[in-house]
C-alpha cells in the first residue's frame, strides 16, 4: 500500500472510531422519538417487491407471525417449484439480494431455474419491524438477539412457507448471520431439522474469533455501551436505515475521488472486495449498495455477536453469572450444539473474508455431522459481501450451488 492510501485508511479508522462513540447518543436521540423519523414508511429506495417486479417477475409479500408475536416479513418470487428460503446478514435487508439484476443475482437465478423463492428479513430491520402487540417504542420490542431469530423467526417462516405451498420441506440459504440462525434453530428446535432438505451457508457466522473485520470490533465495543443503555433507557434500534444518510453516502460513493474512500470504508466495515483489487465491484451500482446500509438491528444482537467474537464460542447470550444461573442453570451461557445439525449442510466461504475467517469456518466443518460441501471459493480475494455483490459471484459460487441443489430436488 502506498502512503496516500495508508493515510486514507487511517482517516477512515478514526472516523469509524468516532461513530462508535456516537452510537450512544444515537440511542438517546431515539429516546426523544427523533429516531422514528428514519423509519419504515419514509423509506423511498425501491423496496424488495419493486426490485423483483422491475426484473419482470411477479412478487408477493407475506408476514409470518413468530411464537413471541414478532411479524417476520417475507418476500416471494412465486412458482410451483421447491421452495427456497433465503436469509440475509446483519445490517442489510432482503433487497440486498436483488440489486444487480436478472442474470446476476442469486435470487433471480433461482427463480429462473424454477424454484419458489422466499426472502426473509431479519427481525428488527427496515422490513421486519412489527409485532403483534408491541410497538418500536416499547423497550421489550428490541430485547432480542440471534437466539430469538433462530428459535422463533426461522421456524415461523418455514411453517408459513410449507403451509402456503403444500410442500413438506424447504431448501435454506443463509448469508452470514442468516446462516447462524439455522444452527441456532437446529440446536433449539430439533423438530425443524426434517423440514429443511438442504442448508447452504454462505460465509457462515458461527465462530468469528479470528475476524479482523471492524464490524466485530464495533460489536465488542458496543457490548459495554449496551450495559449502560439497558440500565438507563432500555434497548432501542441500532443504526436504522436513514434516507438522508443513505442519499449522502450514495453521493459520496458515486464517483472519484471520494468513491475510492468509499470503497476502502466498505472493505473494512462490510467486507467488500479487496484493498488491492476492487475490480469485481460494479462501480455504477455502488451508490445503490450503500444507500441501503445499514438497516438496523437490536443492541442485544450486536452485543451477542460481540460476546461470541470475544469468547470464540458459539453460545447463548451471556447475562452475567447471576442471571445466567437463573436462566440457564449454569454460570456461563450454554453452547449451541453443532452435533445436532444432522441435516445436510453445504458451506461456502472465502479466503479474503475479513469478517468470517477461513480457519474459523474450517473448525466448524470439522464439527458438523452431515457436511455435503466444504467449498472454499477459488479466488483468494473473495470477501464477505462478495457473496451478494461481486461480479464473479455467479461463476465462483452460484453455479456450484445450483448444481448441488439439483441433487436435493
Ligand atoms: C413497495 O413499494 C411499492 C411502491 O413501489 C408499494 O406499492 C408497496 O406497498 C411496497 N411494499 C411494501 C411491502 O412496503
Ligand atoms: C403479547 O404477546 C405475547 C406473545 O404472544 C404474550 O405473551 C403477551 O402476554 C402479550 N402482551 C400483551 C400486553 O397482550
Ligand atoms: C474443509 O476444508 C478446510 C479447508 O480446506 C479444511 O481445513 C477442513 O478440514 C475441511 N473440513 C472437512 C470436514 O473436511
Automatic annotation (TrEMBL):
GO MF terms held by the record: hydrolase activity, acting on ester bonds
InterPro entries found in the cross-reference section: AB_hydrolase_1, AB_hydrolase_fold, Lipase_euk
Signal peptide start and end residues: 1-21
Gene Ontology BP term (one): lipid catabolic process
Active-site positions on this chain: 176 (nucleophile), 353 (charge relay system), 384 (charge relay system)
Domain AB hydrolase-1: 83-389
Keywords for the protein's UniProt record, in alphabetical order: Glycoprotein, Hydrolase, Lipid degradation, Lipid metabolism, Signal
Family per record: Belongs to the AB hydrolase superfamily. Lipase family.
Name by which UniProt lists this protein: Lipase
Species whose genome carries this gene: Laodelphax striatellus (Small brown planthopper)
Amino acid at each position: 500500500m502506498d502512503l496516500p492510501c495508508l493515510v486514507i485508511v487511517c482517516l477512515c479508522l478514526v472516523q469509524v472510531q468516532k461513530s462508535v462513540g456516537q452510537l450512544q447518543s444515537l440511542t438517546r436521540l431515539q429516546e426523544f422519538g427523533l429516531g422514528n423519523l428514519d423509519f419504515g414508511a419514509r423509506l423511498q429506495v425501491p423496496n424488495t417487491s419493486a426490485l423483483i417486479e422491475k426484473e419482470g417477475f411477479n412478487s408477493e409479500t407475506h408476514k409470518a407471525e413468530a411464537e413471541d408475536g414478532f411479524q417476520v416479513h417475507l418476500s416471494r418470487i412465486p412458482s410451483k417449484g421447491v421452495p427456497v428460503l433465503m436469509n440475509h446478514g446483519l445490517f442489510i435487508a432482503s433487497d440486498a439480494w436483488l440489486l444487480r439484476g436478472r442474470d446476476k443475482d442469486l435470487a433471480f437465478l433461482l427463480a429462473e431455474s424454477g424454484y419458489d423463492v422466499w426472502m426473509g428479513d431479519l427481525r428488527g430491520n427496515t422490513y421486519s419491524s412489527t409485532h403483534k402487540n408491541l410497538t418500536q417504542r416499547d423497550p421489550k420490542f428490541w430485547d432480542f438477539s440471534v437466539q430469538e431469530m433462530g428459535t422463533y423467526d426461522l421456524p415461523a417462516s418455514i411453517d408459513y412457507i410449507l403451509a402456503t405451498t403444500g410442500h413438506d420441506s424447504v431448501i435454506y440459504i443463509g448469508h452470514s448471520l442468516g446462516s447462524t440462525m439455522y444452527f441456532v434453530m437446529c440446536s433449539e428446535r430439533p423438530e425443524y431439522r426434517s423440514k429443511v432438505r438442504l442448508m447452504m451457508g454462505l460465509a457462515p457466522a458461527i465462530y468469528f474469533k479470528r475476524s479482523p473485520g471492524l464490524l466485530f470490533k464495533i460489536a465488542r465495543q458496543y457490548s459495554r455501551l449496551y450495559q449502560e443503555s439497558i440500565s438507563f433507557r432500555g434497548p432501542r434500534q441500532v443504526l436504522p436505515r436513514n434516507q438522508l444518510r443513505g442519499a449522502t453516502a450514495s453521493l459520496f460513493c458515486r464517483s472519484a475521488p471520494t468513491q475510492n474512500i468509499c470503497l476502502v470504508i466498505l472493505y473494512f466495515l462490510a467486507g467488500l472486495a479487496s484493498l488491492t483489487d476492487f475490480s469485481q465491484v460494479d462501480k455504477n451500482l455502488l451508490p445503490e449498495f450503500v444507500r441501503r446500509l445499514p438497516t438496523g438491528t437490536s443492541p442485544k444482537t450486536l452485543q451477542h455477536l460481540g460476546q461470541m467474537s470475544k469468547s470464540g464460542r458459539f453460545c447463548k447470550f451471556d447475562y452475567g453469572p447471576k442471571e445466567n444461573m437463573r436462566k440457564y442453570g449454569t454460570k456461563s451461557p450454554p453452547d449451541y450444539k453443532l452435533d445436532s445439525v444432522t441435516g445436510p449442510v453445504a458451506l461456502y466461504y472465502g479466503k479474503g473474508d475479513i469478517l468470517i475467517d477461513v480457519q474459523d469456518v474450517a473448525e466448524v466443518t470439522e464439527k458438523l455431522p452431515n457436511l455435503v460441501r466444504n467449498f472454499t471459493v477459488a479466488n483468494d480475494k473473495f470477501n464477505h459481501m462478495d457473496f451478494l455483490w461481486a461480479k464473479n459471484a455467479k461463476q465462483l459460487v452460484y453455479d456450484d450451488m445450483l448444481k448441488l441443489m439439483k441433487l436435493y430436488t
